[in-house]
């Protein structure tokens, strides 16, 4: 007897199409609280829901009572394999699998595939909320909080939820305010100031002798890109990749891997032409449903582009290792060129096979000499 094809993927496809057009807040400094049934999870920078490309993302851990901070069960369990970069959300009937490197999503129980992907943020996988809720029969809502400026509540609900949203928001007011107080008190100076991987005109002083270092790769081709990613993954470091438009168009798998493993992407337009920036941005939106405002352009093009909303990289130092240079020698050159800087460093390397060959030694030497490779902040829409 032939099995009937499941109708869920077809229904979900419609839901996803509608979900992409949900309005999202215009401000970039909003606070997103997470409600799980009739409780509110602790508020932290690394667990706050966020919008990307018109989609609302949440940490995969919110669906698991053992990991969501309040012990509230939604009937699901989760796991994350750090080696394979695979997130699994499951119950006895379904198993939703997100492959961050490939940018795919499927149900291992039914074989259904979904046009969705997980992303890395603050070193933690985030998943699209509407996909998980649709697959597992959960509900979610999104409401502004009248008693907190730029405060929003993202609430995930199973059949066990008792209160409607209006009553819940009213009764949870004290708890939400306590969560906000705890969050504010926990912020370090670094978290309360913008941290965008672009050099300001006067970089701030770095305390404690550790120099924050933002690392970028200028990639006119994909040569060496996979090896560079392997090294960064092995050391747990994150970087910014400025990709030429043709790289985005021709190397979709690598671009999805870059984004899926927590790195940032900008557009490389060495001649400063607006056509290249528009072409690269459009290709990235079509490939990964995400948008960037980061650009690598000549000095003379920066002012005009920044007026149009582009964030233009201004490097402290650019280097391209030669064919014969060894890793230790190249690392020494970088440190000598940086001298005794005690300010934020914006280091650009050519995205090549030679760079991949010396990168491991360079990262070790930077760490040994108190240069801390900082996590690039994702560009917000």
Describe this structure in words.
- The chain has two domains: 8-187, 2-Layer Sandwich (Copper Amine Oxidase, Chain A, domain 1), CATH 3.30.457.10; 207-373, Glycoside hydrolase/deacetylase (TIM Barrel).
- Helices cover 32% and strands 24% of the residues.
- The chain has helices at residues 8-19, 129-136, 165-171, 173-186, 189-192, 225-235, 245-250, 252-260, 274-288, 299-307, 327-338, 353-368, and strands at residues 31-36, 39-40, 50-52, 55-59, 77-81, 86-90, 95-99, 104-107, 113-114, 119-121, 124-128, 139-144, 151-157, 211-219, 240-243, 264-268, 294-296, 311-312, 317-319, 345-350, 371-373.
- The strands form four sheets. Strands 14, 15, 16, 17, 18, 19, 20 and 21 form an eight-stranded parallel beta sheet that branches.
- Helix 1 runs antiparallel to helix 2 (129-136) and helix 11 (327-338) packs across helix 12 (353-368).
- The chain is globular.
List the helices and strands and how they pair.
Blueprint: H1 8-19, E1 31-36, E2 39-40, E3 50-52, E4 55-59, E5 77-81, E6 86-90, E7 95-99, E8 104-107, E9 113-114, E10 119-121, E11 124-128, H2 129-136, E12 139-144, E13 151-157, H3 165-171, H4 173-186, H5 189-192, E14 211-219, H6 225-235, E15 240-243, H7 245-250, H8 252-260, E16 264-268, H9 274-288, E17 294-296, H10 299-307, E18 311-312, E19 317-319, H11 327-338, E20 345-350, H12 353-368, E21 371-373
Parallel strand pairs: 1-13, 14-15, 14-20, 14-21, 15-16, 16-17, 17-18, 19-20
Antiparallel strand pairs: 1-2, 3-4, 4-11, 5-6, 6-7, 7-8, 8-9, 10-11, 12-13
